[in-house]
Amino acid sequence: PRSAPNFCNVTMVGCKDQGGNCNVDSSGALLRRGASGQFWKSIVTGMGNRGMQLRDAATATVACSNSTTVTGNLMFRDSIFWNNGSGGTTNCANHSSTASAVCQSCDLYNAWKAQGVGPVVEVDPGISNASFPASPIPNSNANSSALDCKSLDGFFETTSYRGAFAPGGTNWTTGWTNFSTN
After folding, report:
1. CA-CA distance, 122 to 85, in Å (whole number)?
2. What whole-number distance in Å separates Cα of residue 170 and Cα of residue 84?
3. What is the 8-class DSSP label of residue 163?
4. CB of 23 within 8 A of CB of 48?
5. Which pairs count as long-range contacts for 20-26, CB under 8 Å and 24+ apart, including other chains?
6. Of 14, 23, 114, 146, which residue is 20 to 30 A from 91 by alpha carbon distance?
7. Are 20 and 42 in contact (CB under 8 A)?
């Protein structure tokens, strides 16, 4: 059996603009081994190589029926991908392991962008990762009421924004989270 987790209001900030050796094959979402799951109202930004990538045909089969149609089993919805990869626009990157699969990474990413309700968008969330630790508080581009996380799972709270922090809100990790460098 495989897990099919639900995630909502997640902020993933890479170390792309911090220099050093942090850009060694970094992805916001590296999806492999037949992964499935729902990622709603999330922000993926500042990854050194790519925002997302499928790494095997088994995961492609879980995610897609063909190169333009998703199964709904592996979804990013109502989420932001921004400033990923060296030029800031590599939100997806195809991998050789999916060359003959039912779909590739960028097919899936483009299908997520084409969703009628709660599509993936490419807007600047205002999160700068130029210093460490990055400030995770987004700007008003993260506001969205397109989807309600409670409809995904009753465990989640209803929010009107993407990511883990309300735009202009407070950093609720202060005082209990340690962002030590490795």
Report:
1. 13
2. 25
3. S
4. yes
5. 22/48, 23/48, 23/49, 23/86, 24/48, 25/49, 26/50
6. 146
7. no
Token pair, residue 56, equals 């095997």
Tokens 């970094």 sit at which residue? 26
Q: What is the pTM of this model?
A: 0.94
pLDDT band of residue 181 (cuts 50, 70, 90) is: low
Task: Please check whether residue 57 is in contact with residue 64, taking contact to mean a CB–CB distance below 8 angstroms.
Answer: no
In which residue are the tokens 């989420």 written? 79
**Tokens at residue 4, please?**
């099919």
User: Tokens 């990622």 label which residue?
Assistant: 39
118: left (phi over 0), alpha (psi -120 to 50) or beta: left
Q: Which residues of 59-92 are buried (b: 16+ CB within 10 A; e: fewer)?
A: bbbbbbeeeeebeebbbbbbbbbbbbbeeeebbb
pLDDT in tens, 122-140: 999 999 877 777 789 999 9
| Alpha carbons 31 and 29: distance in angstroms, whole number | 6
Residue 140 to residues 102, 137, 166, Cα–Cα distance (Å): 37, 10, 9
What average pLDDT does the segment 107-119 reach? 95
Handedness of CA 143, 147, 153, 158 (dihedral sign): positive
On the 0-12 / 13-18 / 19+ scale of CB atoms within 10 A, 149 is: buried
Q: Which residue has the tokens 């209001």?
A: 9
